[in-house]
Structure formats: C-alpha cells, structure tokens
Design a protein that fits this description.
The strands form four sheets. A five-stranded mixed beta sheet has the order 1-2-5-3-4. The longest helix has 14 residues. Helix content is about 35%, strand content about 15%.
Length: about 250
C-alpha cells in the first residue's frame, strides 16, 4: 500500500484490514473480477473488471473519481486496490490524477511510476485513459469518442460482427473526404435496411450491397439497434486500438 496523494493510497489485495485502519483508510475502491468481502466501518465501491485489455474501465472513471474525492474530503483517506496493485488500480489512480490535478495521461502515469516503480497498466487501459484525456477527463456519453468506444465494445461482445465474409466488404469510404453533414448510406438489397456511414466506418472494412445473401446477421441487427438510439451528427472518429484516436476529414 503506497501513498500517492494525501489521503490516497494504491496497492494490492495483500493489504489487510489492520493496515487500512492504521493508515486511516475509511473508503475502499476495489477493481477485480469479484467483489471483496465487506469491511466493517469502511465504505466500499467495487468495479468488476479483469486485468485484460478489453475490460471496460473508461465508463467508470467519473464515478470512481467522485468516490475518491468524497472519501478524501475533510481529511479522510481512500485505498484503490486490485489483485496485484500494478495495473487496474494504477489505471484508476492515474485517471484520478489526470482529472483532479489537470495532468495529461503521460504526466499522471509518470508521476505514478515515480512513486510505484512496478506500476504497469496493460495497453488497453492506457488506450482508454488517452480517450478519457481526449474527452477532457470527463465521460461524455454524447461525445463521438465515447459513442464509437461503446460501438467497439458491442462488436467485441458479438464475435459474429468481426467475422462477416469478405464478399460483403467494400472500399473504405473514409478514403473519400466527406463534410460532416454529407452522410453516405449503405443499403442491404435483401432487407432494405439503411446502414449509416459512421457505422460502416466503425465497422472497418466497410459493408457493401450484397445480392446473394442477407447482409444483416443477428449480431449486426443488434449493433444497428444500438446505434440508432445514439445516432447524431458528430465528427467521425477512428479508434485505433491502444494507439489513441484520430479524426477523419
């Protein structure tokens, strides 16, 4: 258990209740596959996540920051804990430093590494924190960055979306510069459902009309239903896994 800021510690599961009480910890933020048993007199927030690049921490960063700030208010202390104390907990504390100290991802991560040399979050968490920085250290559900992040999570969940036959793919429309209000629609000739261009861009390589077979598999229909609930005219964003993001056109 290592102090990061006054009233903020980071560590692994080895820290027992005695160590927490000795450090004056009154709040525990845990991030692990399973929630730890409750500790008497200690407020707790659990984020269910494995130490895997695809685990979603981004969606929880604001609620974690609010929990830690409330715990530290008035001189209290909080511990951010995962199993080993080197990846998931480090990612949450790095995001907290970015948000509260107005630091970039690189600055916050360097500060953590200087305090805890064995800190090493996985590449997926690094990518998510860079997206968080791109949103101004706020989880903005109306942001193009966040919407396409969620779309990617849907495609990861439904593997059939990643394995459509090659004959349904066409030339990448992002190679042609489009204005923000000029949206290309792709239509399945069999089911006649329009696929907006920002969906096809998130679903690279892109889709084309198919004569011989239905384009919309069960998984793609789920994706489209999700997309149509959040659709709006926003800049098109390409989320290149683990390497930040860039804007098209």
């Amino acid at each position: 258990m290592v102090p990061v800021l006054p009233g903020l510690f980071v560590g692994g599961a080895a820290a027992g209740v005695g160590a927490l009480r000795a450090a004056g910890v009154g709040a525990l933020l845990s991030v692990d596959a399973e929630a730890p048993p409750p500790l008497a007199g200690i407020r707790a927030l659990h984020i269910p996540a494995r130490d895997e690049p695809g685990a979603d921490l981004l969606s929880h960063l604001d609620s974690c920051a609010a929990f830690l700030s409330a715990a530290r208010a008035g001189g209290g202390a909080a511990l951010v804990r995962c199993h080993a104390g080197v990846s998931r907990s480090i990612a949450l504390v790095t995001a907290y430093l970015m948000k509260t100290n107005n630091l970039t991802f690189e600055e916050a991560y360097a500060k953590i590494k200087a305090i805890k040399p064995d800190a090493k979050m996985n590449e997926g968490f690094e990518w998510q924190l860079k997206l968080y920085e791109g949103m101004g250290c706020k989880v903005d559900v109306s942001s193009a960055i966040y919407k396409q992040y969620r779309l990617q999570k849907v495609t990861e969940k439904y593997s059939e979306l990643q394995n459509l036959p090659q004959e349904v793919f066409a030339v990448d429309p992002t190679s042609v510069c489009q204005t923000l209000n000029s949206e290309i629609l792709y239509r399945c000739r069999k089911c006649r459902i329009d696929v907006p261009s920002f969906v096809t861009r998130a679903f690279w390589p892109t889709l084309k009309e198919v004569d011989q077979q239905p384009l919309l598999t069960r998984g793609l229909q789920i994706l489209l239903n999700f997309v149509m609930t959040v659709r709006s005219n926003v800049p098109l964003i390409s989320l290149s896994r683990y390497s930040g993001w860039s804007q098209f056109c």
